[in-house]
Amino acid sequence: MNEEEFLAQWNAEKQSYAAWGSFVVSQVLEGLRVLDASIDTSVFIKIPPAPRLKGDDSLVGKAFHRNKGYADPYGEIEDKIGVRFVVLLTSDVMKLQQVIESSTVWLWPRWPPQTAPLMAGQTAPGRTVGL
Fold this sequence. Notes:
By secondary structure, the chain is mainly α. It has helices spanning 3-35, 41-44, 56-64, 73-76, 90-102; strands spanning 52-53, 81-82, 123-124, 127-128. The protein has a single domain, classed as Beta Polymerase, domain 2 (2-Layer Sandwich), CATH 3.30.460. Helices cover 48% and strands 6% of the residues. The strands form two sheets. A two-stranded antiparallel ribbon has the order 1-2. Strands 3-4 form a two-stranded antiparallel ribbon. A hairpin with a 2-residue loop joins strand 3 (123-124) and strand 4 (127-128). The protein starts with a helix and ends with a strand.
């Protein structure tokens, strides 16, 4: 896959990644409410979470120009979309961790710890998440 093909695939899938990010935000916020009904997420979360897509130039740079050694850059890059949840306390981080890791709508492989979660149907070398 060359840069042009890579960008064509990214542009075709970008809205799906944005939708996934929005879904993750809604699931985490709802999970916090279920975990503790007294949590007011508008106070608990200090900056409203919003999905952020990796920029085209940044994605292409990571895939082709940073000597990452990807065999399949599009399939191996796992940070095409991200969400930042800003909270005040370490105990709040632990609540977020509990919600994320206990979700039934995505899989969270605990080990190795640097491994990021995969979306349903997404694959990476040696890993696949079912629907």
